[in-house]
Amino acid sequence: MKELTEIKYWIFDLDNTLYSGQTKVFSEVDKKMSSFISEKFNVDLVEAKKIQKEYFYEYGTTLSGLMKKKNVNPKEFLEFVHDIDISWLPKDKFLREELIKIKEKKYIFSNGSHAHIENVTNQLGINGLFDGAFDITDADFVPKPHLDPYKKLVEKFNLDPKKSILIEDIAHNLEQAKNLGMKTCWLENDEAFAKKDANKPYIDYKINNLPSFLQKINILRNN
Ligand SMILES: [Mg+2]
């Protein structure tokens, strides 16, 4: 793990990574996606959920499928689904402290929108601690795990992939990061889709708690 003290670019996924999947923040977004589809296409919530998941698995995000198959306006969709009340989500002081100790560059890399990134990081009390964020509009709506957004991320922030690490809860989203030369770190969780590729060789590190992991590296760096 000592080699991680040499990392110059820390890249974090947002949902279920900077906060735990147990919090159910993402369930709120998930529900809004179902109601968007239900209202827009006049189907009941069960059918809407089916369409939502089908597109998610086939295209990487529900939005990507909706754009391709139903010509949905991405801006309208993103505004609707990310308009969630998460005022109940507690601040994460431990995460904040450890992020502050990382003096290297820090970025957020999300398949969501900038507004959602703002909302979540504000609520967690970690806003303003990052050097930049890359969202689905920066990715021209081509989501992880496609290679394109990883390349665009590297370009946007002028990163050196060999000195970068990506931390993610969806194991499969680490593959293209590894192909570009990044270190990869999977945040263990029990979601079937997120863990199905957890044993693939492109995963360098597996952790079960993000702030504790950062704390270990921060201690190593100072020794
Ligand atoms: Mg995630």
Task: Report what the structure shows.
By secondary structure, the chain is α/β, with parallel strands linked by helices. It has 2 domains: about 1-20 and about 90-220, Rossmann fold (3-Layer(aba) Sandwich); about 25-80, DNA polymerase, domain 1 (Orthogonal Bundle), CATH 1.10.150. Helix content is about 45%, strand content about 10%. The protein has 10 helices and 6 strands; from the N terminus they run βαααααβαβαβαβαβα. Strands 3-2-1-4-5-6 form a 6-stranded parallel sheet. Helix 8 links the parallel strand 4 and strand 5. Helix 1 crosses helix 2 (about 45-60). It is globular, with a radius of gyration of 17 Å. The chain starts with 8 loop residues before the first strand and ends with a helix. Magnesium ion binds near residues 13, 16, 17, 169 and 170.
Which of globular, elongated, flat, extended, rod-shaped describes the shape?
globular
In CATH terms, what is the architecture of the largest domain? 3-Layer(aba) Sandwich
What is the count of β-strands?
Answer: 6
Q: What is the number of helices?
A: 10
In the sheet with the most strands, the strands line up as: 3-2-1-4-5-6
The ligands found in this model are: magnesium ion
Q: What would CATH call the homologous superfamily of the largest domain? A: HAD superfamily/HAD-like
Regions with pLDDT < 50 over 5+ consecutive residues? none
By CATH, the topology of the largest domain is Rossmann fold
